[in-house]
Amino acid sequence: MSNSVYGIALSGLNAARSGLSTTSHNISNVNTVGYSRQESVQAARPSNSVGSEYIGQGVDIQTVERVYSDFVISQQEKATSESAFFKAKFDQISRIDGIVADSASGLATAMSDFFSAAQALSTDPADMSARQNFLSSADSLASRFNGLNTVMDELRSATDLKVTDTVEKINNSTKQIAELNQRILSISSQSSGRVVPNDLLDQRDNLIMQLSEQVQITKVSLDDGSVNLFMGNGQPLVVKNQPFEVNTLRDPEDPENLLVGVQRTINGEERLISFDSKSLGRGALAGYLSFREGELSQYQNTVGLIAAQIGSSVNALQQAGVDLSGTAGQPLFDFGSAVNPIDDFSRVTPNAYNDDSNPISLTLNSMDLSKVTGSDYEILIRDNAGTPTPQYRLAGQGGKFVDLNQVPAGSGNFVIPDNAGNTVLSFGLGAMAASNVGDRFVVMPTRDAARNMTLAIGSPDLIAAASAADPQPGNNENILAMAGLQSKGVLFQNFNTKGVSVSDAFNQMVSRVGNKTRELEVASEARDSVLGQIQQTRDSLSGVNMDEEAANLIKYQQAYQAAGRVISLSKDMFDQILGIFR
């Protein structure tokens, strides 16, 4: 009897000790990030049959388990990716918003000053001070275009650095998760799955949460305790104890951009299979790539388009008029040294993987600045029934390629139309061979216009204020036409519309930037709020409550003391029995 009582009391003592240890562990980790509180799970031992009765045999510790909800954690991972995506885009676009809307560094003031100077000069075309003021405002306008483009170039480089940092974080996390998978697998196999390493599971969950901030993931939990992780596009990141590295590489079609993808061996050559930002879902990486491919390129190209249109329109008027000496005017603005001016506005980049044995070049022939948008174009040489033919699509949007038409047929010259069928730009390709199938080009119609724009003349008497029809010093027809460019619809003339003036085009861009910034700010705040609510739900479920743990300490302390008293009583009873036989 005493042995039975002793055994029962000992089991209670062990159970209380386990509860005290678990409670102490919870209290010690109250400030540990990602820690899930643990509970000691007890179960009564099977009773023994004694005559017509069943006598209990005490208690066993079944396990120590985490207080954990896989549903809540999966919601937190998703909310973390959403929050990081919008925060990344908002942080980047805020910098553009602060620049384009600023009166000191933006274009609005410089354009207004330029056209105001032209209007002032028209009142007295022979006044040298007014001519000098116009020349100075033109120089200031060109410098402002240069500066704004430089800031956007710097922002592109800064975004690439953030992409690099994000990829490094992804690779570090996946490596550690794979290592934890291996440790968990090893422990589970040794104990036939009965022992669960709770603290290792918490560490892995915390790393997965950090990974979710960088890239949206799909998590697959396996019966052996390991997890497999995949990106939104299906690319594996971790499969059991094997991490898969994400790589970066300079874009072979645009060296200013950094591509993200995975390395693959194709035809004996290592190549990067790049990710489309839209296929990545959410997360900081998708946010940075989406901003760079979308908003940043669109705004930078629009600034370039405005520079190209102002420069080419003013230059055309300058060359159509005469200066103070009666000589035909020279261009007011310079964009470079190319024979074809559009080559100074545009950038054409062949893919670095194009066929070297039979290289072909893409040469721009013409471009209608009134119909160009802020988009870039991808050109692909594909096989069409045994004949290489080019296709195109808008860059960075992942749409389908569309066949290009030769105009005229058989000329080797191709046109890219707008939605109404009007020619936006035309280009020529050399003779295409079968080896060129797969070759690619990116055409950026106005990317370099703002970067290259400079003042071309240095003397105020070279301003062609007069028309060639009436080359008198007092004639102001030409300078009036220049002033009128401020309100003339010379941009975005699609579907036979009247178009938009350069001033309105810039104001619209400023408005779009402001609206997009506010939209992303609201979206970021909303996602942060959702994430905060889910974190509160997780903390209320899995977090350590010090009041609750203090109550548990008292409960297990009392249970320990009571079990000890039973052991002491059992000893006294056993001693009395021994005394009977002395």
What's the overall geometry? elongated
N→C terminal distance: 19 Å
Radius of gyration: 37 Å
**SS-derived structural category:** alpha+beta
How many helix segments?
A: 11
Q: What oligomeric state do the depicted chains represent? A: single chain
Helix amount, in percent? 40-55%
pLDDT averaged over residues: 87
Low-confidence stretches: none
In spatial order, strands of the major sheet run 14-22-16-17-18
Task: Characterize the structure shown.
The structure is a single chain. This protein has helices at 2-28, 70-100, 107-123, 128-190, 198-214, 284-320, 342-345, 449-452, 477-484, 502-542, 546-580, and strands spanning 38-44, 48-50, 53-55, 59-66, 217-221, 227-231, 236-239, 242-243, 247-251, 254-266, 269-274, 321-322, 333-334, 347-350, 362-367, 377-384, 387-394, 402-403, 405-406, 413-417, 423-429, 440-444, 454-455, 466-467. By secondary structure, it is an alpha+beta fold. Among the domains are: 2-67 and 544-580, no CATH class; 347-445, no CATH class. It has a 5-stranded antiparallel sheet with strand order 14-22-16-17-18. It has a 4-stranded antiparallel sheet with strand order 5-6-7-8. Strands 15-21-20-19 form a 4-stranded antiparallel sheet, with no helix packed on it. Strand 20 and strand 21 (423-429) form a beta hairpin. The model has no long low-confidence stretch (mean pLDDT 87).
What's the quick description here?
This protein has eleven helices and 24 strands.
Give short descriptive properties of this protein.
11 helices; 24 strands; 582 residues; alpha+beta; four-stranded antiparallel beta sheet
